[in-house]
Design goal:
This protein has two domains: about 50 residues, Helicase, Ruva Protein, domain 3 (Orthogonal Bundle), CATH 1.10.8; about 110 residues, Dna Topoisomerase Vi A Subunit, Chain: A, domain 2 (3-Layer(aba) Sandwich), CATH 3.40.1360.10. Helix content is about 40%, strand content about 10%. The protein has a four-stranded parallel β-sheet with strand order 4-3-5-6. It has a two-stranded antiparallel ribbon with strand order 1-2. Helix 6 links the parallel strand 5 and strand 6. Helix 1 packs across helix 2.
């Protein structure tokens, strides 16, 4: 059995870092060692920033985004078209779309996708909040921007059913050939989706 070479405090730091997505045990050890070596420049400021985030960051009661204010800065931004709501699975998807800068619309974060096998049903997601927002009026279009997975497709169909009967346009992200993609390297599902979603030129 290998002997422990660090104190319990550093071991706890490593264990917590290993829970961060993208960091395994080895990466967590390297990150912890780097933080400890740069204690004044990194570890202290990081600890302060995390304490502030823990105290001030919360979930927006309207859209489900994370921010230091409620409603969040997206929901209170008067320059956004609040008549268009982009529905995403997670906050990371919202951030990705914002980085792309393709549309200046409102958002709605579901908090995941429907997955009966994992015990995730409609009541576990923020779908009711979306229906309430649309029912309140002022929304012209809902863009369903969920991942092209089985769970994502199931969730998209469920949302479409829930919004049926309301006087709004419902659209989905196009799926198919990515910009710069070569047909020879694409899988059959992507090619099939691209052919079905073809547009006139």
């Amino acid at each position: 059995m290998a002997k422990r070479v660090t104190g319990p405090e550093i071991e706890k730091l490593i264990q917590l870092l290993a829970k961060v997505p993208g960091l395994g045990p080895r990466s967590a050890r390297r990150a912890a060692l780097h933080l400890v070596k740069k204690k004044d420049q990194l570890l202290g400021p990081l600890a302060d920033a995390m304490a502030i985030a823990h105290e001030k960051v919360g979930t927006c009661s309207i859209c489900g985004n994370v921010d230091t204010s409620d409603p969040c800065s997206v929901c209170t931004d008067v320059t956004r078209d609040q008549g268009v709501i982009i529905v995403v699975e997670d906050v990371s998807d919202l951030w990705a779309l914002e980085r792309a800068g393709a549309m200046n619309a409102a958002y709605h974060v579901l908090g995941g996708t429907l997955s009966p096998l994992d015990g995730i049903g409609p009541d576990d997601l923020n779908i009711r909040g979306l229906v309430d927002r649309v029912s309140a009026g002022g929304v012209r279009e809902v863009i369903i921007a969920v991942n092209a997975t089985v769970e994502g497709q199931t969730t998209a169909h469920y949302i479409t059913d829930q919004l049926a009967g309301l006087e709004i346009k419902i659209s989905r992200l196009a799926h198919g050939v990515p910009v710069g993609g070569e047909l020879d390297y694409l899988d059959e599902g992507t090619l099939s989706a691209a052919l079905r979603a073809r547009t006139a030129i």
